[in-house]
Amino acid sequence: MGQRGCWPALPSAATASSASARPPPRRVEAVGPHPLARYNRQKISRSRAVQPDDYQLFMQEMSGVKPITSDQIPPSSPLPHPSEAQLARREAAMREDGHEPDGLTMEAVEMLRPSDPVGFKRDGVQEGVYKKLRLGKYELQASLDLHQHTLREARVALLQFIRDCLERDIRSVLILHGKGERSQPQALLKSYVSAWLPHIPEVMAMHSAERRHGGSGALYVLLRKSDRKKAENRERHLRRLA
């Protein structure tokens, strides 16, 4: 921030005549950085090992994914909606990569109410693990905000988000779908997201969030370990046995 009262000193009598021949200096209004730009610079300054080009590439890959640093979810500005051509390209890419599971229907699903709690866990997920997830005891490593998304946009964003999280060994995430109290029909996006997640093999469990994280308008989601992390754990276990 600029210092108060820091205006140019008045010219002395000896220099007044020469100064009058020059045009007066223009006052330049200070323009503050965009919050995201300031956030990016702060992150870079803390991690000197990250090169700017690498950081920009990472931020592009993680578009829509926000690390959570507190128990409160800050409001986010809506991003520009992708065009039909962009959505079609993303959907085609996911089909080619095998990242589009069956069951993520765009047809009718069971409709929920805005206040309905949602829960799901796969066989093999321990009750203690599920309880910690329900109570918001796990550190939230990333979040995806689906507010203002159409169903088609939300479907693409959700699949891309989960794929990105797996590649980065992120397991505990928050998905904000909103309660949908003003949508027609109510809870439209909430109903579809809740129906989609159990059909994604990488999702081990999910549950409506605690009030501090969005309540019935958000979901805690536990993802499976990545293949790389599983291999590391097996190797670590074998070293202990050796």
Automatic annotation (TrEMBL):
SUPFAM superfamilies: SMR domain-like. Keywords: Endonuclease, Hydrolase, Nuclease. InterPro entries: Endonuc_SmrA (IPR047688), Smr_dom (IPR002625), Smr_dom_sf (IPR036063). Residues 1-41, 69-88 are annotated as: Disordered. Residues 144-224 form the Smr domain. GO terms for molecular function: DNA endonuclease activity. It comes from the Bacteria. Coiled coil: none annotated. Pfam families: Smr. Residues 8-21 have a biased composition (Low complexity). NCBIfam families: endonuc_SmrA. PANTHER family: DNA ENDONUCLEASE SMRA-RELATED. This is DNA endonuclease SmrA. It comes from Aeromonas simiae. The lineage of its organism: Bacteria, Pseudomonadati, Pseudomonadota, Gammaproteobacteria, Aeromonadales.
